[in-house]
Fold this sequence. Notes:
By secondary structure, the chain is α/β, with parallel strands linked by helices. The chain has 2 domains: about 25-135 and about 260-290, 3-Layer(aba) Sandwich (Rossmann fold); about 135-255 and about 290-315, Response regulator (Rossmann fold). The chain contains 13 helices and 13 strands. The strands form 2 sheets. A 7-stranded mixed sheet has the order 7-6-8-9-10-12-13, with helices on both faces. Helix 3 (about 70-80) crosses helix 4 (about 90-100) and helix 5 (about 135-150) crosses helix 6. The longest helix is centred in the middle third of the chain and has 16 residues, at about 165-180. About 45% of the residues are buried.
Amino acid sequence: MRRRELVALMCSAALSWPARAEPKLRRIGLLASRPLPPLESFKKKLAELGYAEGKSIAIVPRFAEGGDGRYPALAWELVALPVDVIVAWGTPASLAAKRATAKIPIVVVTGDVVNTGIVSNLARPEANITGVIAINVELEEKRLELLKEVVPRLKRVAILANWLNPLNRINLETAHRVARDLSLTIDVFQVRGNDEVDGALRALVEARPDAALLAADTLLLNNRKLIADTMAQNRIPAIYPFREYSDVGGFITYGANLSIMFQHAAEYVARILKGERPHNLPVQQATAFELIISLKAAAGLGLTVPPAVQVRADEIVE
């Protein structure tokens, strides 16, 4: 075969050879209220596990922006794409994801999944659902006990809660029970969306409680700066469920570390992408609970935090 013919044949073969397909990005649907700080821990952990955004995975966010009623439609959007896994943050988002699909794996990051109907068994969850949880029902008791230790002559506690969040309603039952044991009166101030937070705070301030407790809820977390500032300006000692409130000047925070919870959620997502099935992954219960006390905020409130409480703190803000 002549040289010219050989070159022509090789070129023809190269042109006809199928192009090597680019590896398909696995799509992770993210159903949450807003792009809050703990989500960065989730992405970072995924990258450490070999799933870097834009290289092997694409994260598809759907944010309700404080409107919990939007979650069902947003969940259906993720199912219609479809995505390979849905990560749902909070009870309203988790329930919406569950109702939208029984096939796509779902990893939830939330509070109580059994009493809210997300799964029926932690060790063997429903076929397509697993996740990481903090049992907030138990934490409400500890938060009220902390307020009792820190606030002299505590009698009336205001609770700000999202009435559209089933977990908040369950937690309120616990709060009322514990309040009776501690001889406290509970006043509940409800919100159903971002547009109601300011009004609920005004009503709470007018009620002049001895202290306040913030429910574990992402809608309220969205408004953490407004809430913490309102409590400080009106000298209302408040206890919060997430460390992100401490970052904006909150007095006391006691609860699970959300960033660590999302790191565990990332580990589950990675295992699911490698072929493991959600029902073989037990729902994990958070083990990292932290007490953060701001002595600076205490000074502004005219309070002295007892040494017995300070020594139990994981972090003190001077």
